[in-house]
Amino acid sequence: MPRQGYPGGAAWSVDDIPYGGLVRTAVRDDAQLFYTLATASFVEITSDLYTRNLIEFFRGDAEVETWLARGWEPEELQHGAALRRYVETAWPDFDWVDGYRRFMAEFTQFCSVDQLAPTRTLEMAARCVVETGTASFYRMLSEISPEPVLRTLTARIRADEVRHYKHFYRYYLRYRALERPGRRAVLSTLWHRVGEVDAEDAFYAFKHVYLATHPGAAFERKDYVAFRTGFRRLAQRHFPYAMAVKMLLKPLGLSGPVGRVVLPAATAATRLLLLR
Ligand SMILES: [Fe+2]
Ligand SMILES: [Fe+2]
Question: Ligand 2 centre and the CA of 217: distance in Å?
Fold first, then answer.
């Protein structure tokens, strides 16, 4: 029987993905894909670190609190688990458990919990940007996937991210009607939010994926820059701009000149692998 998604649990489970049919020869030599998926798996599976203060921020709004705790967080964690299994199946030499342990040991020492926006409306708007970024990211991966199981998996994750966007957008409208922020406040929040993020989590995640595959090597920032440049090159050709515009600019009332400023921010979110 098809699952219903929240509140009846996630819309799909890791066991629904046919990992047994994975065509390893189609992906095993694609280093950029390996780094992208392994990094994404580390970041997604760490979502719970960020959920707590977001739930705290919306304390008293039972609908939002419940959805964040029972809908959103389990689905983000499942994205990490499903990507992990893909990576472990496609690249069995990679010791995911050990790499993740090293990543967490360093990351939890240095990570700062996300700065939240000054108001609930603005926080919801910022979440719409992040989910637009992730939905676009997985859509791009699905469309350019050289391998059928990956195409299925990333399409499932993309559908979740679009649904997350729809929740945050509905809550955004509800809070906007109460708080009535000006367009300038919305724009400046989105701009600063994305500008501030140096994607620390993606940086440390990549670092430990890299070190696991280059034992004994020294890791330098230029290795991360090279990875991001490779990803950016893909995004330039395949980023679903039309979808990002539809999800972000029109609904947030940011079309026209203001929108032209925000769109690069949303795409930057994707390019920096901002996956939460
Ligand atoms: Fe996700
Ligand atoms: Fe999401």
Answer: 34
Give the residue-averaged pLDDT of 235-249. Answer: 79
Under 8 Å between Cβ of 25 and 59: no
The Å distance, Cα 230 to ligand 2 centre, comes to 24
Q: Which ligand is nearest to the CA of 166?
A: 2
What per-residue confidence (pLDDT) applies to 198?
55
229 has pLDDT over 90: no
Q: What percent of the chain has pLDDT over 70?
A: 82
In sequence order, what DSSP letters do the residues of 158-197 get, joined into one string?
HHHHHHHHHHHHHHHHHHHHHH---HHHHHHHHHHHHHH-
Domains and CATH numbers, the chain: 20-271 (1.10.620)
Looking at residue 1, its pLDDT comes to 37
213 burial level (CB within 10 Å; 0-12, 13-18, 19+):
middle
Q: How far is CA 30 from the centre of its chain?
A: 21
